[in-house]
């Protein structure tokens, strides 16, 4: 079975298909699948609890939903009001420039405060937000709250969504 397989099995969340994860424990395949538990060191937040937070005041809201290819080249998304959109930053095999863009952007938006609460989300049943929450937690941000239901859960509460463009300085 080999050491690499054993390491992969250890890095993947309990009960998950180990082949969908890389050796660092990030989901790299089948991103639209049920997500049951938050990454280690990250707290799951319910949509009702997230709805009482004031984005930019009580917490920084980070949307990591990928760009919809059907937008005709103009990336735009409907998201939680006040959220900052970092598309593609939730991939497991992330491009280093995209990872740097996310981490630098969060540092800028928190004004360097690693203790500012960060709410990370995308859509319901989306592992990209799980990956991004794990990535930010590993970068030293605390607390990280993972909104597993994403903007879908927000909308399901009857709350409005608003259009947003990707955060500035997006890598091409």
TrEMBL record:
Residue span(s) of domain Rhodanese? 117-163
Is the Signal keyword given for this protein?
yes
Q: Name one Pfam family in it.
A: Rhodanese
The alphabetized UniProt keywords are:
Signal
Query: What InterPro entries does this protein map onto?
Result: PQQ_CXXCW, Rhodanese-like_dom, Rhodanese-like_dom_sf
Q: Which CDD domains match?
A: RHOD (cd00158)
Q: Which residues form the signal peptide?
A: 1-16
Specify the protein name. Rhodanese
């Amino acid at each position: 079975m080999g050491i690499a397989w054993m390491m992969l099995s250890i890095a993947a969340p309990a009960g998950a298909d180990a082949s969908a994860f890389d050796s660092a424990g990030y989901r790299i395949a089948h991103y639209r699948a049920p997500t049951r538990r938050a990454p280690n060191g990250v707290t799951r937040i319910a949509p009702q609890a997230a709805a009482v937070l004031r984005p930019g005041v009580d917490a920084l809201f980070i949307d990591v939903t990928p760009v919809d290819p059907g937008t005709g080249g103009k990336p735009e998304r409907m998201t939680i009001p006040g959220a900052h959109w970092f598309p593609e930053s939730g991939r497991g095999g992330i491009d280093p420039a995209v990872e740097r863009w996310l981490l630098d952007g969060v540092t800028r938006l928190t004004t360097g405060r690693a203790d500012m609460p960060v709410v990370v989300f995308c859509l319901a049943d989306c592992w990209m937000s799980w990956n991004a929450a794990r990535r930010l937690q590993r970068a030293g941000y605390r607390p990280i709250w993972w909104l597993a239901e994403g903007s879908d859960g927000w909308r399901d509460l009857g709350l409005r969504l608003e259009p947003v463009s990707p955060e500035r300085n997006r890598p091409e």
